[in-house]
Amino acid sequence: MSVDRSRENRIAIMASGKGSNLQAILRAAACGECPVDVRLVLSDTRDAGALTIARDADVPRVSSLNPKEYPDRAAFDVGCAEHIERAHCDWVVLAGYMRILSDPFIARFRHRIINIHPALLPSFAGAHAVRDALEYGVKVTGVTVHLVDEVLDGGPILAQASVPVREDDTEEILHKRIHTEEYALYPATLKRMLTSGFRVVDRTVIWNDE
Ligand code: GRF
Question: How much is the pTM?
Answer without folding.
Answer: 0.96
